[in-house]
Design a protein that fits this description.
Structural class of chain B: alpha/beta
Number of domains of chain A: 1
Number of helices of chain A: 11
Order of helices and strands of chain A: HHHHHHHHHHH
Shape of chain A: elongated
Oligomer: heterodimer
Number of domains of chain B: 2
Shape of chain B: globular
Strand content of chain A: under 5%
Distance between the termini of chain B: 42 Å
Strand content of chain B: 25-35%
Strand order of the largest sheet of chain B: 6-7-8-3-9-10
Number of strands of chain B: 10
CATH superfamily of the largest domain in chain B: P-loop containing nucleotide triphosphate hydrolases
Number of strands of chain A: 0
Largest sheet of chain B: 6 strands, mixed
Chain lengths: ~250, ~240
């Protein structure tokens, strides 16, 4: 049942130009960064050779690409997540799903995975882009895998929050703006933590993603991402269920 | 299937805060019966139907569909239900075929049966020429038919229709009524309406709901025998 819902979400997504535009955008921006960094790398390459243990292509070119991808995906997520439940409600199609013999959990998880498959496509394209560097050098695959895991977990957090906010309103645009605000807030919260405020740093999505970006798979960050996602998925399920109970 | 009673609702009540929308409604539906729910606007018809289909939890009372409790085993009970809400729940960006295929999967129809069921329901609802059309391009009447097709594709025992003929032209109304009558022979149907002639045309039994309670419950045959006029009763009870 989850698969049925996910496939429907993807189908609806690709039936509109939005998905294709986003795929294009998500290929253009990383390519731009990659080319820029490649230029810079070639300029300083001769100086790098004089250092004892020089950073490689992966550190200097690919890491910034993934770091930027994280930020762009933050902007993209609200556009994808806004319609998930708000539009179903607006078009009165939520009744169709609720009257069908499937659980609310299936509906929520199905929608979540639908969007995650789309993000997986975007991430796969970025990885393919990075692979083009194999033409001229070696790549640290461990670092790439850590970045892919980081990006996947990060987008899972984005999607879960977006899905929850979409369940609160009838207007997709309102859902998008609140999601964007919330995500940016969580992303930037560590700016406020300059004085070494540990508590604020540990809830910043950016801070946790940076660890993965540097190739550090930290259990704390892993658990944080997973808990974050699970919390908002459960809140979404509860929200839909309470609508049935309280009208 | 041998179960004669397909739908049984006992003492259904629903409060929204301090407002009571539905108060102690009892419903019983037998196989092969078409029940008409009549009532003025805001009487509680839609609330009742939303409760019967699991879209709204009742404040008190119990609902059984084909002997399965809707509140404790919702998924099993819902396999016996088909629901067409007042506004047909359609994905405007899908074609008729895509949409019905999706609803067939939602209702756990087995893969090898899907195509047959799909063809059958499309035939039944007269959608043959519109299979590849986007739902958003269809007229209101055809959209209503797609909504109806969605509700009957899995051949449910209980079909619940909320004002199925609103906004249709006279020819379409006649066709939909004929279809409902057909469905009522093998399954059971509840339909809400405020068109009295519709009830007289297609229903076996009528219940009038007013201010959240059932104020009248009689078979059409009995009414005819007594020679009483439905319109008169309706006006008397709801004014």
């Amino acid at each position: 049942m989850i698969v049925t819902i996910s496939r429907k979400e993807l189908k609806m997504l690709f039936a509109s130009p939005l998905a294709w535009l986003l795929l294009t955008l998500m290929q253009l921006i990383p390519t731009w960064i990659l080319l820029g960094r490649l230029d810079a790398f070639l300029e300083i390459q001769s100086q790098l050779l004089q250092i004892a243990n020089p950073p490689g292509v992966t550190e200097l070119i690919i890491l910034p690409v993934f770091a930027m991808a994280g930020l762009v995906l933050l902007m993209v997520t609200p556009l994808l997540s806004m319609r998930l439940l708000a539009e179903e409600r607006r078009n009165h199609t939520l009744t169709l799903l609720i009257s069908a013999p499937i659980s609310i959990t299936d509906i929520v998880i199905g929608k979540f995975f639908g969007v995650m498959v789309f993000f997986l496509m975007i991430i796969a394209l970025i990885v393919a882009l990075c692979m083009s560097l194999l033409l001229g050098g070696n790549i640290d695959f461990g670092l790439i895998i850590s970045n892919v895991i980081g990006l996947l977990l990060l987008t899972a957090c984005f999607t879960a929050l977006g899905l929850y906010i979409s369940s609160l309103t009838v207007q997709p645009a309102v859902a998008a703006i609140i999601t964007l605000g919330g995500l940016l807030g969580l992303w930037l919260i560590d700016l406020a933590a300059d004085g070494g405020n540990q508590w604020l740093q540990s809830i910043s999505l950016l801070r946790h993603f940076e660890r993965f970006n540097q190739g550090l798979i930290d259990t704390f960050s892993l658990v944080y991402f997973i808990l974050f996602t699970a919390t908002f998925l459960i809140l979404t399920i509860r929200r839909l269920d309470s609508e049935r109970l309280h009208g | 299937m041998s179960i004669a009673t397909t739908l049984l609702a006992r003492d259904l009540s629903r409060n929204y805060g301090s407002f009571t929308a539905v108060h102690n409604i009892n419903l019983e539906l037998k196989r092969g019966e078409v029940l008409g729910l009549l009532g003025p606007n805001g009487a509680g018809k839609t609330t009742t139907m939303r409760m019967l289909t699991g879209n709204l939890a009742p404040s008190t009372g119990s609902i059984e569909v084909c002997g399965v409790d809707l509140l404790t085993k919702p998924q099993e009970a819902k396999t016996h239900l088909g629901f067409l809400p007042e506004i047909p729940p359609l994905y405007q960006d899908m074609t008729v075929d895509e949409f019905l295929l999706f609803t067939a999967k939602l209702h756990h129809i087995e893969k090898r049966d899907i195509q047959t069921k799909l063809n059958e329901v499309i035939q039944r609802c007269g959608l043959n020429d519109r299979r590849r059309n986007l739902i958003s391009t269809l007229s209101k009447g055809f959209q209503q038919r797609v909504g109806l097709a969605q509700a009957i594709i899995h051949n449910p025992d209980v079909i619940i229709l909320d004002e199925p003929t609103v906004g249709l032209d006279p020819n379409q109304i006649r066709e939909i009524r004929k279809l409902i009558r057909e469905l009522g022979n093998s399954n059971s149907v509840i339909l809400s309406t405020h068109i009295l002639s519709e009830v007289e045309n297609i229903c076996d039994r009528v219940q009038i709901i007013h201010k959240g309670g059932v104020v009248f419950d009689e078979t059409l045959a009995a009414l005819k025998q007594q020679g009483t006029n439905l319109e008169m009763i309706f006006t008397q009870l709801t004014q």
